[in-house]
Specification:
2 domains; 11 helices; 10 strands; alpha/beta; ten-stranded mixed beta sheet; single chain; Spore Coat Polysaccharide Biosynthesis Protein SpsA, Chain A; 306 residues; globular
């Protein structure tokens, strides 16, 4: 950039995609339409599918590049491919089914330039089958203890902007060893919280479209990823309610798979905290009183997950 905007940091925006040609175009358009006056380089990473070079473009302060996932197949490897393909001072993520509002990036960069935490997030607007719900975190929501206890869904990867230097050092890349890359964003958020926390723009600046995730009903992967997270992060075992939440989610996944272990896992969740609702939802599903899909649909319509 030149002139009055020459001092604004370049931003690399990583969009990992797979078999969503219409949605990814909409996501790219929203990124390129940002009011931010600095340079935006959009890096679209195709994970296991043929590259669409028609997406590539170049203009004043804006460009779109298309690359293949060169690392471990899956979302984590695709995100890391995009990160390492760029060189901007700041790195941002956008899921291929989400939409940034026009002033999102500019407001976040303004905060990051004041110093302090290396990562900045915003609130979101959840859209699911015609229903819309606004979810904006508070600073307290983003503290480590609250984050691990409640899995603050408002702290969404599509809102993240982070300084590259911290991303490649104190926080680290996305963990590619997580089974199926499920919850890779939560794992990364925990590490970002431990590495200095977050700036927050307390406004819903990303429209998150639920119901298109490849993970929402992949129960086997969900159960395996929860086990991985429990083994990796001691912080989950330091808070009984955080432990109960994860065990309750695992019990729900096992119940959806009609596995007998669901009851034992639900009991472990309730023992960790009798206030954990997922333990009881898992038992209801395991008893075949209601389907996991039905409960998940009800939760999504209210702007929540299980």
């Amino acid at each position: 950039m030149s002139g009055e905007h020459a001092d604004l940091p370049d931003v690399d925006v990583v969009i990992a995609t797979r078999d969503r040609p219409r949605l990814v175009r909409e996501a790219i358009t929203a990124v390129l339409s940002q009011t931010y006056a600095g340079t935006i380089r959009c890096i679209v990473v195709f994970d296991g599918t043929e590259l669409d070079h028609s997406l590539e473009q170049r203009g004043p302060g804006r460009s779109v590049e298309v690359v293949a996932n060169r690392r471990r197949p899956g979302l984590a490897g695709a995100r890391n491919t995009g990160i390492l393909a760029g060189q901007g001072e700041l790195v941002a993520f956008c899921d291929d089914d989400d939409l940034w509002l026009p002033d999102k990036l500019g407001r976040q960069v303004e905060l990051l330039r004041t110093g302090g935490p290396a990562t900045c997030v915003t609130g979101i607007e959840v859209s699911y089958e015609g229903e819309r719900h606004t979810r904006v975190p508070t600073p307290a929501d983003l503290e480590l203890r609250h984050l691990v206890r409640h899995r603050v869904m408002e702290a969404h990867p599509s809102t993240v902007v982070v300084r590259r230097r911290a991303l490649l050092s104190s926080i680290g890349l996305v963990d590619e060893a997580i089974p199926g890359s499920y919850g890779e964003d939560f794992d990364w958020m925990i590490r970002a919280a431990q590495a200095g926390g977050f700036h927050l723009v307390a406004a819903p600046l990303v429209r998150v479209r639920w119901g298109t995730s490849q993970f929402s009903r992949d129960w086997t992967t969900i159960a395996a990823a929860i086990d991985y997270g429990l083994a990796k992060h001691p912080v989950f075992h330091e808070d009984r309610r955080a432990l109960a939440r994860l065990l309750g989610r695992k019990a729900f996944a096992l119940a959806a798979l009609h596995r007998r272990e669901a009851f034992a896992c639900a009991l472990s969740s309730a023992r960790a905290s009798v206030r954990e609702p997922r333990a009881y939802l898992a038992a209801v599903v395991a008893l075949r009183l209601v389907s996991a899909e039905r409960l998940l649909d009800v939760a999504h319509r209210r702007g929540h997950g299980i």
